[in-house]
Amino acid sequence: MAVSELLINPTVEGTPANGFNVTGFSTLPVVITIIPNEIAPDDLRIVPTQPVSITNARSDVTQTVSLDLPLGITVIGVDKVQVTVHIEPALGQLPFLV
Prior knowledge:
This protein is mainly beta. The chain has strands at residues 4-13, 20-28, 31-36, 46-53, 61-66, 73-76, 80-89. It is elongated and about 60 Å long.
């Protein structure tokens, strides 16, 4: 089977603190190079990561996590990635106590 590059798709768990929103994410590296074998899924285009927790976060969260690879995939190079989940204050929303 041929060597191919796959995009990395972070798995994010939890929600940021009240008044904050997730505005995006980034990964380093952006893609990984793999060698699939005969049991690897034919339609594989992205690879998820192990979960990154953003519970109650009020600013960007950066973690180094492992890839969540399906059976039959061998990674060339790195097997961990740095994921940054971008978190910003929610615009136009003000928390208040009742």
